[in-house]
Amino acid sequence: MKTNNKWLSAATGIAMVCVFFLACNKENSGSSADITGKSRLSVYMMDDPIAFTKVLIDIKQVAVKIDTAAHRGDADDNHQWNEDYRGCRNGNSTIWDTLSITPGVYDLLQLRNGTDTLLASGLVAAGKVLQVRITLGTSNSIYTDSVTSYPLNIIGAHNYFDINVRREDISVIGNDQLKIWFDFNLSKSISFHENKYWLKPELKPFNDMKRPKLEGRVLPEGASGFVAVYNQADTLYALPWLGGYYQVRGITAGTYSIYFKGWHGYKDTTITNITVGSSGTAKVPVITLHK
User: Fold this and answer.
1) Which pTM was predicted?
2) Helix/strand/coil for 86
């Protein structure tokens, strides 16, 4: 069982963004998805739980990097990325396509337990989509309660961040619909020092249409502050919603323990040996916490 202090630290900020698009990654053989004609990319957001009451992210632009010279079956698929991940080797043939987006401030805590929202979409040029770039504005902030807010200052020289994705993280529907989800891990993305909150986004992609899910219920309603689903390879979080229901997406097959953080005087509880298969939804028995 993991200690309460560790879970409290992890819960100080975690959230998830879903982005539907294609990309490549050095670690995957033939990892760049390719397009023989124009395809539609759609960008969605969703959330994992955090201890803040609001996490406001100011999103200004979403774009994708495409290698227009690359096509299916290229011999260099195994060597797409250079060692520092700054781009693909065939850099002269790459372009950036900007997707259609409604710019604005998104509260990630409004998107949880399986809910997502369309962020951006658009047609992209033929070729392999290598990266997605999300550009942020300056109106990023967090609320520690219903009225107290703090600005989130972006770490680094740029107000954008780029993401690489493995081929297995991509969902392709028909010949022209491309989808992918991202886990926006705010526990690693938000830090506090020099009396300021700092933001350096860290996102993990996954294919929601192929990855299994895990869901259950914790009672009484309001007794659990958050739920942590973990094994030696990964840790995911959920925030119980109305009726104590929770859901975890982006999980991989395996055996997990589940830690329920007690709230309002209720005791913490951990259960073990919860098996998640390679597809479908794993149902967790109803858990009742006690004071």
Assistant:
1) 0.67
2) coil
